[in-house]
Amino acid sequence: MKERQVSEFQGLAMKICDILDYNKAIDINLVDISKTSNVADYFVVCTAESRVQVRALMDELEHALESEGVFVLRRDGVGDGRWVVLDYGVVVVHIFTADLREFYHIEKLWADGKNTLNMAGLNKLKDKLKKEQEAEKQKEEKAQKSAEKTASMSKTTKAKGKKTDSKQDETQKGSTDEQ
């Protein structure tokens, strides 16, 4: 997975993982399939303890994202409730019961060992990105302070220059008057 910059799509995928984690989904994995598929950029795969929890996770996820203006494009498996697929365009969410997840191993079909993060890995990535953002912000603030200091010094220098110019003008005017 790209670790440097969070794309809008990766941000959505991470948000989905956070919502599922908050609502007690089990074994959440984020799989970057952008280089291997044109279906989507990310799969989010998780397990629910029962069909009732599958539906509850689906409902909570849809509600949370709709409140932010993100709507599911397609859903499948709602009737059976053992494997629900929610298609958000660039992110496809798979919510399984444990028996079906074990049977299909969907993330193993797409994972290559480098493109998958579990919640622990995802939290490390978020911490790293947060630190990088804070460092970048501090760097920008330092550059802004430096620019402000330079501008202030420039104004002071110009003001001193004007005083010197006016003194020279007075001196020159005085010497012209004497002639």
Task: Explain how this protein is built.
A hairpin with a 6-residue loop joins strand 3 and strand 4. By secondary structure, this protein is of the alpha+beta class. The protein is 58% helix and 18% strand. The chain has a single domain, classed as Beta Polymerase, domain 2, CATH 3.30.460. The termini are far apart.
The profile of the biggest β sheet is:
6 strands, mixed
Number of domains: 1
CATH superfamily: Beta Polymerase, domain 2
Task: State the CATH class.
Answer: Alpha Beta
- N-to-C terminal Cα separation, in Å? 82 Å
Q: What is the global morphology?
A: elongated
Radius of gyration: 30 Å
Strand content: 15-25%
Helix content: 55-70%
- Poorly predicted tracts of residues: 1-5
SSE string, helix = H, strand = E?
Answer: HEEHEEEHHEH
Structural class: alpha+beta
Provide a concise account of the structure shown.
The protein is 58% helix and 18% strand. With 179 residues, it is an alpha+beta fold.
What's the layout of helices and strands?
Layout: H1 8-22, E1 26-32, E2 42-48, H2 51-66, E3 74-76, E4 83-87, E5 91-97, H3 98-104, H4 106-110, E6 116-118, H5 119-178
Parallel strand pairs: 2-5
Antiparallel strand pairs: 1-2, 1-6, 3-4, 4-5
List keywords for this structure.
single chain, 179 residues, alpha+beta, Beta Polymerase, domain 2, 18% strand
